[in-house]
Amino acid sequence: MPTINQTLNASMLRDRCWTPHPDRAPGGTKYISIFRNGRGDTVALDLGSGSRNAIWAPAHVVPGSLAPAIDRDFYPADRPRNSNLNVPELKGKPLMRLFPSSLAEARDLLEHFAEL
Question: CA 24, 4, 59 angle in degrees (round to 5)?
Answer without folding.
Answer: 60
